[in-house]
Automatic annotation (TrEMBL):
Gene3D superfamilies: P-loop containing nucleotide triphosphate hydrolases. Belongs to the adenylate kinase family. Monomer. Catalyzes the reversible transfer of the terminal phosphate group between ATP and AMP. Plays an important role in cellular energy homeostasis and in adenine nucleotide metabolism. Keywords: ATP-binding, Cytoplasm, Kinase, Metal-binding, Nucleotide biosynthesis, Nucleotide-binding, Transferase, Zinc. Consists of three domains, a large central CORE domain and two small peripheral domains, NMPbind and LID, which undergo movements during catalysis. The LID domain closes over the site of phosphoryl transfer upon ATP binding. Assembling and dissambling the active center during each catalytic cycle provides an effective means to prevent ATP hydrolysis. Some bacteria have evolved a zinc-coordinating structure that stabilizes the LID domain. Zn(2+) binds at C130, C133, C150, C153. Residues 127-163 form the Adenylate kinase active site lid domain. This is Adenylate kinase. It comes from Paracraurococcus lichenis. ATP binds at G10, A11, G12, K13, G14, T15, R127, A200. It is an enzyme of class 2 (transferase).
Amino acid sequence: MNLILLGPPGAGKGTQAKRLEDGYGLTQISTGDMLRAEVKSGSEIGLQAKAIMERGELVPDAIIIAMLAVRVSAPDIAEGFILDGFPRTVPQAEALDIMLKEKAMPLHHVIELQVDDAALVERISGRFTCAKCGEGYHDSFKQPKRAGICDRCGNAEFTRRADDKAETVAARLEAYHRQTAPLLPYYAAKGILRVVDGMAEMDAVARSLEAILGPPQ
Ligand code: AP5
Ligand code: ZN
């Protein structure tokens, strides 16, 4: 099964993608995580992307599409993938359609997580992430069960993102509404858009996703 999770920054795409990986055996493909790895390694892509990401703007389509084309050719997505943070513009969606058609891979669902802008700012400002497995946590909404230890992998190191500052979050939300929201009618016209209330608590969002996808095998 191949899915896209669509939604504004902080909507819970990464949180739910991790749960779908664990429950359904799908592979998360997060362009944000891929870009942060490029920045960390100091690669050419990382050097180009770093300042753009810190301003909360979108990295140019050509860079993202080339990076994604390599990723969807890897064998580990044979059981299915969850795209998290891609596509983010209509040209990215069009490029994805071409890539998947060439590989005869269907796109089963595009799921929009709907969350109010005010809630997003609160979610992003309290976020921290396991440095090893990427599991997401929150100062108020989701602390590790054992203080300082990741529930998912047992690691004891966590990170906070450079672009999670309030002023950058405003720019990221603006980019979402202007450049990414047009993907909603794009996928609605294809008949594969599903909408989930992302304001609900995490377990309820997971149950709504399960109602769409069917129970894990
Ligand atoms: P990216 O890494 O994709 O970030 P984003 O889209 O801004 O999304 P986030 O990761 O912030 O949020 P999320 O929806 O995953 O929420 P999460 O589950 O963590 O992109 C970063 C940057 O990279 C972009 O700004 C851009 O520059 C660049 N980029 C990436 N892809 C690109 C592309 N395709 N094209 C161009 N540029 C690209 O949840 C947030 C917090 O809320 C967590 O703390 C979590 O614990 C908590 N939470 C989650 N669900 C709930 C809930 N139901 N109730 C309460 N709290 C919750
Ligand atoms: Zn972990």
